[in-house]
Amino acid sequence: MSAPLAQVHPSVVHMLAAAAGAAPEAEALVQGENRLTYREYLNCVAAFASELAAGGVTGERVATVLPNSIDACIAAFGILAAGAQHVPLNPLYTARELGEILTDARPRVLLAAAGAASALAPVAKAAGVDTIVALGAGARDLAAARGTAVPLERLPEPDALAILQYTGGTTGRAKGVNLSHRSIATNVAQREGLLPTGSGERILCAMPLFHAYAMAMGLFLAANCRGCLVVLPRYQPETLLAAIGEERITIFPGSPTIFVGLMAHPHFARTDWSRVHTCYSGAAPLAEKILARWEAAVGAPILEGYGQTEAGPVLSFNPRAGVRKPGSVGIAVAATEIQIVDVETGTRLLAAGERGEIRARGPQIMQGYRNLPQETAEALRGGWLYTGDIGELDTEGYLYIRDRRKDMVIVGGYNVYPREIEEVLFAHPAVLDAAAVGAPDDYKGEIVRAYVMLRPAAQASEEELLAHCRANLAKYKVPATIEQLEAIPKTAVNKTDKQALRRRASGVAGR
Known about the structure:
The chain is α/β, with parallel strands linked by helices. It has 14 helices and 26 strands. It folds into two domains: 12-147 and 159-393, Rossmann fold; 409-506, GMP Synthetase, Chain A, domain 3. It has helices at residues 12-22, 38-54, 70-81, 95-105, 114-126, 181-194, 212-224, 237-246, 256-263, 288-298, 373-379, 418-426, 462-472, 498-506; strands spanning 27-31, 34-37, 61-65, 85-89, 109-113, 131-135, 161-167, 175-180, 202-205, 228-231, 251-254, 278-281, 302-307, 314-317, 331-332, 337-341, 356-361, 368-369, 380-381, 384-393, 399-404, 409-411, 414-416, 431-441, 445-454, 481-484. Strand 24 and strand 25 form a beta hairpin. The chain is globular, with a radius of gyration of 23 Å.
C-alpha cells in the first residue's frame, strides 16, 4: 500500500528555480527581521553557486558547519547549484568528530559560522581542506546578493551526487551516505503524495538544518510548495511559541522531545495555533499519549513518519487525508516497497503481524556509503535497503516500529551509537573495560548510560570521565551517567552482556 507520486523535479535546484519563476515576489525565507522573496533567494543561490564553481568545486565536495540561518539555506542550494556535493555537519561536533569526518569526506571548501571558523582551521587543515569561508555576523553575508540578478550557470544532472550525509556507525566510525539529486528530489515528491501541501504554506524550521529530517521536511518542502520557511537559529521554547502566531505558521515539523517540551512550557496554552493545520514528527518514536495530548490541545494532528538517512530519508508517513493510526508510522510513500523479513537470513518474507527486520526499496535509496564497500554490501542486498530496525506490517500496510536490530540509541531525535562512546572511554588511561547502553527517558525518549571497569590501582571519578567524554563527543552523545563496576557483565561467549546492562540502566533514576 502506498500513495501516488507527485510531480518529480530533476533536482531540488530545479525545484527552487521553478518556485522563483512562478512566484518571484512570494516570501521565501524569514529569520527575524531578515526576509527574502523567491526572486531574491534564487539570486543569492545563483551568485554563490557561480563563486563556488569559479573556485573549482564542481564535482568535488563542500562541507558546512553552520547553525540554522538564512545563510545555511542559501549555502545548501548554492553548493548543489555549483555541481558540488554538500556535506552538512553538526556544529556541536567536537574537533575529534569533525576531523574524522573531514578526513573521510575530503571537501575542497568548508563553510563555517564566523565565530567558529578560526577554531576549526587547524582541524580543517589537518584534513586537507583547501579553503575555509566564514559566514554570518562580521563575515560573509550570502543574502547580500539578493538584489543582483545572476542567472544559474548550470542545473545539476539528476544522477550526480548531491549530498554526503554522515550518520553514526555501529563500528564507531561515522558513515557517509551518498545521495543523488534524483533520489532527493524524488523523495520530496514521494512525501508530497502522502502529505500534500498548498501554495504559500508557512513552515517553521526549529529542527537543525544539517539533519536529513529538517532538510526533507523543511528546506526542500518549502521550496516545493513555494512556501515560506521561517528559520529559528536554535530551539528556544519561548521564541518558537511566539513565532507560531506572529509568523502565521501553517506547518510545524517537530520531534517527540520538542512536542513534550513545548506542552510543559507555561506559554504553550497562550499560543495562537489557529492557522497550524499539520504537524510532522520524525527522528524518534512518538508515544501515543503525547500524540493524543498534543492534538487535543492544538487542534492539529501530528503525522508520524519513518525513515533514515540511507533512505533519502522518508520511507513512510501517516497520510494527511485518510486513516491515521496512533502508534504506527504510516504507509509506504509512492514507488516504495516495505517488507518484513526474518532476521536470520533476511530473505524469508513474513506475514502481517509478524515481527522481523524492515527492508525497503525505491528510487530514493542511497547509492551506498562513501569509502565503505563492505558496509554498503551489508546494507544494500538484492536491491533492498536493510534498515536494521525491527517492525511489523498490519493487514492494511501500516508499519509499526518495534525495536532496533542495530545497537543504537536515539537521544532527543539524534542517533547515538554506543560503540563510539565506548571507544572514547577506552581512550581514557584509567579505563580497562567499558560499555554503553540506552535507557528510557520521559523527555528525550532515551538517554545513554555508561559503565566502566577501571585498571588495577587506577582512579577516576565520574565527573572526570564525563569531562573526558565532553571533550571528545557532541553534547547529545555524552552519557547521562557513568557508573564504575568491578567487572562489566559478560555472556557465556565472553561478549559484553548488553541486555543485563540495559536492565540495570532502566532501573536507575534519571538525573
